[in-house]
Amino acid sequence: MDDDVECTLVERRVLSLAWENPFLTHLYCTFQTKENLFFVMEYLNGGDLMFHIQTCHKFDLHRATFYAAEIVCGLQFLHSKGIIYRWGHLDNVLLDSDGHIKIADFGMCKENMQDDLQTSTFCGTPDYIAPEILLGQKYNSSVDWWSFGVLLYEMLIGQSPFHGRDEEELFQSIRTDSPVYPSWLTKMAKDILVKLFVREPEERLGVKGSIRQHGFFSSMDWSALEQRQVAPPFRPTLTSPSDCSNFDKEFINEKPKLSCADRTLINSVDQTMFRNFSFVNPGMTRIAAR
């Protein structure tokens, strides 16, 4: 399908930039056969944040702040390249073996969104969709800061900020409800969440004001963080480089297999669209040259 082709090519283009930032999943290369497209990516076996939060219900303040700060670095890098992420949720934030975060899954990104450009495609994970998308309004990178707010709320509090018995009720909650902030939440944690959940996109933290300057991150050394010199507060338990125990058994038990190729469908697709699909990470070329 045309949308599937475009999502795959978007992912390939965004991943080709990702090696420039330590908080995005890195791509070694892409290649193709007559029937399949392949992405060769780094192996991140620390598990995703959804897996880890299910074992401890919520993260302590220090751990949540650390993950949030590294996610901010990753999102701001994408935005600096004119890319809106649009796919933020706990499952898409992985940990490497040291405990640093890596944002994954770029198929829903929107490219070429520099300056004041806006888009209007309805997409995202239901719990994380910004109200301007639900209202059918044009939007920009503001939607990523709303999704980031939902993710931060879940890390700090252990549940979603908006609720509904079905998708319609959930979307109504996102459009109109104010999240509940437990009394034990710190003043700065509540303040950053309130400012991320502003429904006017142009007034939302991340769009208006520097998110790095917010008091919630007052203890963060951003320069050291960007160099991965801040020690992670949690290190995944790993017995070997190939250990996969930090993933849900449902995924581990799946047998690896290539996508089945429908010859009629392949023949109906304009294959010239994949002409520039193959890619080798420039960093890999430099390593080989040494």
TrEMBL record:
One Gene Ontology cellular component annotation held by this UniProt entry: immunological synapse
Superkingdom of source: Eukaryota
Pfam families: Pkinase, Pkinase_C
SMART domains tied to this protein: S_TK_X (SM00133)
Keywords tagged on the record: ATP-binding, Kinase, Nucleotide-binding, Phosphoprotein, Serine/threonine-protein kinase, Transferase
Any one GO molecular-function label of the UniProt entry: protein serine/threonine kinase activity
UniProt keyword Transmembrane helix, yes or no: no
InterPro entries in UniProt: AGC-kinase_C, Kinase-like_dom_sf, Pkinase_C, Prot_kinase_dom
Residue ranges occupied by any Protein kinase domain in the UniProt entry: 1-217
Annotated ranges, domain AGC-kinase C-terminal: 218-289
Keyword Plastid: no
Protein name per its UniProtKB record: Protein kinase C, theta
Source organism per UniProt: Xiphophorus couchianus (Monterrey platyfish)
